[in-house]
Amino acid sequence: MSLSKRLFAAGYDLLNSGVEGRVVPFRRRTAGLARGDVLEVGGGTGANLPFYPPETIVTFIEPDPYMAKRLRGHILNQRRQASIVQQVGESLPFADASFDTVVTTLVLCMVHDADAVVREVRRVLKPGGAFLFYEHVISPRPRGQWWQHKLNPIWKCLTTGCNLDRDLTGSIQRAGFTTVEVEQFDLSVGLPITIPNIVGAAKA
Length: 204
Fold this sequence. Notes:
Blueprint: H1 2-17, H2 20-28, E1 37-41, E2 57-61, H3 65-78, E3 82-85, E4 99-105, H4 114-124, E5 125-136, H5 142-158, H6 168-173, E6 179-188, E7 194-203
Parallel strand pairs: 1-2, 1-4, 2-3, 4-5
Antiparallel strand pairs: 5-7, 6-7
């Protein structure tokens, strides 16, 4: 598994470049709207770095050592005030009410327990703080769900852990936020198929 993760991290930016143009608007609606002390769960290689306002102080949670290495290089290159903590999102090493903003973009599909991660996000947010999220999710249509369930095992193997069929809207709505605003839409990735996505904000 370590070899596959190393290869995935090495090729992630190149693979992502094919769809990044379509994702940029949603990075602006998540990282671009972050304020104050910010936690990003699943920093990956740092695709959100250019979008954070310059006055923010960003802490990245990134458990994958290969991703964290590339993220560290991007932080240095961009001279950002940011730090990396190698820990899983299901057990965040921070006190309650530590952050003004928490961000996830295309990461809750990869974690072991999405419900647990979102509960931790809620715990570490200050009262009135914002959870800004952009994720792909299970289709609202039965036929779409059927295909996602069928394709998920091979997709998960090819991507070292990404799940196509998670009800992440439900995970967020169950986590105890005071308000949840979610926009759901289908995103084209340049193929004759579209992928169900959500973007939104939840307030602590």
